[in-house]
Amino acid sequence: MLEGKLEELSQGAVARVRAAANAEDLEAIRVEILGRKGTLAAVSKDMGKLAPAERARIGKLLNAAKQGLEAAIEERKKAFAAAALQKRLDREWMDMTLPAPGPRPGSLHPITQIQMEIEDLFTSLGFTVLSGPEVETEFNNFDALNIPSDHPARDMQDTFWLEDGNLLRTHTSPVQVRGMKRLGPPLRMIAPGRVFRNEEVDASHEHTFYQLEGMMIDREVSIAHLVYYMKTLLGGIFHRSVTVRLRPGYFPFVEPGFELDIKCLICGGDGCPVCKQSGWLELLPCGLVHPNVLRNGGIDPDQWNGFAFGLGLTRLAMMRYVIDDIRLLQGGDLRFLRQF
Ligand code: DAH
């Protein structure tokens, strides 16, 4: 009788082990059957009532049933472990032969981009790119450019003076003087760079900003040459032909001096908020180089003349990308810079 019960029990248990859904279920089944208070333990208790010969026989059967069950449990455990490993391998699979993703590409600052475009354009027109120092002499920044120390034009450029009498250049125009002295006429040069003024910082003013100076000296240079080069420059930057006009403008180092405006690119001249309803955008000051400046650069104004211009690179970048706060360009915020 006990034998039949044992047989039934062990067959049922093996079937349950094989059907166990996961490791936890399996453990529960193991405890229920093989545990100290489990079903098989109850059977072995009942064996006490048997005759010794019968007890030995049933005892053997009991052990066989136990071993059979333990083997079934072990087999099932292995199957679970193999399935778990396979799942992990599937999840963590990768193709080691694929190329590595590489570093995230950076990009050039919008001002650098415009500067490089203009450099390309002017070098294609035979101009040399010069750079001058950011710490300048008073003479190069002012006197040589026809701005003596008592000249009111000095007040327009709030200057950072250094204790040794030098200064942080307030514009790129002193590179004109260096270029004339170093290279002599005929001369075609541009000079991009950083300039400094003691300004209160707000949405449209910075103490540090970028300009690009240009100068061409040759025989009989005229305003027509100036306009031609400026139109070429602006067409190159804005990728379309632009209409320009000259208004008189005063700068001690040019005579005559102009403010060059372009017809507003947003409204085409009808008037809009960008051009403050005027139809024109003030873009760059320029003029024919003053004879005193040529002389200070060691060039004979009776033999040579030329034009010069000063482009606000920072302002140009703001116009091209419609950036309404100058501080964004200086702040180093990657969320802003990644857009370019
Ligand atoms: N240096 C002037 C400034 O920063 C701009 C300028 C005006 C430059 C006229 C020029 C020029 O070369 O011809 O305000």
Summarize the model shown:
With 340 residues, this protein is α+β, with helices and mostly antiparallel strands.
Account of the protein in words:
A 7-stranded mixed β-sheet has the order 1-4-5-9-8-7-6, with helices on both faces. A two-stranded antiparallel ribbon has the order 2-3. It has 2 domains: 91 residues; 228 residues, BirA Bifunctional Protein, domain 2, CATH 3.30.930. 43% of the residues lie in helices and 18% in strands. The chain is of the alpha+beta class. α2 packs antiparallel against α4 and α5 packs across α10. The model has no long low-confidence stretch (mean pLDDT 91). The structure holds 3,4-dihydroxyphenylalanine (DAH). 3,4-dihydroxyphenylalanine (DAH) binds next to β8 and β9.
What are the SSEs and their pairings?
Blueprint: H1 2-19, H2 23-34, H3 39-46, H4 52-92, H5 110-124, E1 128-129, E2 135-136, H6 138-141, E3 167-168, H7 174-183, E4 187-196, E5 208-218, H8 223-238, E6 244-248, E7 254-263, E8 280-289, H9 291-296, E9 305-312, H10 313-321, H11 327-330, H12 334-337
Parallel strand pairs: 1-4
Antiparallel strand pairs: 2-3, 4-5, 5-9, 6-7, 7-8, 8-9
Helix pairs in contact: 1-4, 2-4, 5-10
The structure holds 3,4-dihydroxyphenylalanine.
According to CATH, the homologous superfamily of the largest domain is Bira Bifunctional Protein, Domain 2
Count of alpha and pi helical runs = 12
The hetero compounds bound to this protein are: 3,4-dihydroxyphenylalanine
CATH class of the largest domain: Alpha Beta
